[in-house]
Every structure is written in structure tokens, then in C-alpha cells.
Amino acid sequence: KLGIKRPINSIVTGFHRPYLVATCLKSGLIAVSERGNETGRIPCIKVLEPGWNTIRILGICSGMGPVLSNPWGICIDTDGDVLVADWGKQHCIVLYSSVGVGRSIVSKGLSSPRGLAVLPDGHLVVSDSMNHCIKIYRYNLEKDMAF
């Protein structure tokens, strides 16, 4: 019913300015973006397993893939790969594979990437705010990406 206040069932701590949340119904993984700040904290994506424990932190170490500047959109595919729309210095889409090193998969033609979704038919949908459109890319689930 509308207007009924429900009690909080759980509180998960350990975040600094959490912003976006994405889930994968197949794996139960949860991705949470954290905003950086002027005191030196850098933005990142924390990946949690179904028991709420952080299992990966993405976007902070160049040895593990691109360092994030300003993550504006996140989603998780059925393989547990995390995709991030980064609105930083280079407007791009970054794929952090569940195994291996992350990489930029869309690096041209985006003015202001915001929202992301992976469709069941294998397409990646990106909202491009400043271009006033959504862009749809073929997303190859076998990781053979060529954008």
C-alpha cells in the first residue's frame, strides 16, 4: 500500500559517497559506484557478492584496466563483467571483465555517456545526454568486441 513506511532490513557499510547501483539477477552480483572528492578519494566501482562482501574494486589501478574519472552509468552482464560509462577526460565505455584486465570498448562518438544497459539479445544501450539520444552497440558476449 502506498504511504506505509517499511523498516530498513539491512544496512551495508564501507562506502564513501555511494552513487549508482547495478545488479545481475543471474549471478547475484551487485556493483556500487563511489564518487571521488576533492580530498583525494578517487572514484571507483565496488563489486559485491550476494553475501554483501566486496570482492573487487574497479577503476583505481591502471594495471587492472582504465582508471575511472567520473563513472555515470554502470551495469553487469550475465557473465559478471562490469560495464561503466565514464564521463571523465575521455568519454568512453569501459568493460571490466570478470577475469583479466579491463579495457575501453567504446571510445569515440560519445559526448556525455550516462546510463547503460545490456539487453538479452546482446546489445549494449548507452544514453548519450549531450547528443540527445541513446546509442545501441552490438555487444558480443564471447568478449570479441570490435567497436
From TrEMBL:
Keyword Ligase in record: no
SUPFAM superfamilies: NHL repeat
Origin: domain of life: Eukaryota
Keywords: Repeat
GO terms, molecular function: ubiquitin protein ligase activity
Keyword flag Repeat: yes
NHL repeats: 63-99, 110-140
Swiss-Prot/TrEMBL GO biological process terms: proteasome-mediated ubiquitin-dependent protein catabolic process; protein polyubiquitination
Name of the featured protein: NHL repeat containing 4
Organism from which the protein derives: Sinocyclocheilus grahami (Dianchi golden-line fish)
